[in-house]
Amino acid sequence: MQILGTDNDISPIAAKTIADLELDEKMYKPDFEITEKFQGFSKELVRISLLGLGVYGFLIKLGTEEKGTAQKFLMALQQHKFLAGTGVAAFALCAGCALFHGYETARCLAYQLIIARYLNRLEGDRWSPQDKDTFRDVIKEKQRCQKGVVKVGTVLLFTATTSLVVGAVLVAVCSVLVLFRG
Length: 182
Prior knowledge:
mainly alpha
């Protein structure tokens, strides 16, 4: 996987004028809005997963602060450590995938802007036919790369959402087991 920003990703042929870099707002504004919504959703997944991890911390604190020899809360957690561990792992996986998804949405937007700039260069007579052929090849390559980023982002978002649901179910189960067995 090639990382955006290496090997002169922006343009194999330098811009001749500032017009080669300019984009009409209607070409990129919808992409920015969609990216903002995806990144906002990813941030919410991270926030909720961190809140779930905090609940596990509260349950552990509740168990360790118990006085006396019984320590029912801590014993209940120890008896169900697989559930608790799986829940913690699910929330951590959710947070990690959501963070990476936010990064991938930015990469996707970057590819979209590069593609739009090359499409602009195809219009008019500032560029030779050979340059325009190069631009068409670059557009195809960037579209291929962008498609890969979208696929990775889709898998990350699905994994984060599924992990959040699993983590939430397991934190509820652990909470019930700890609080009502205690």
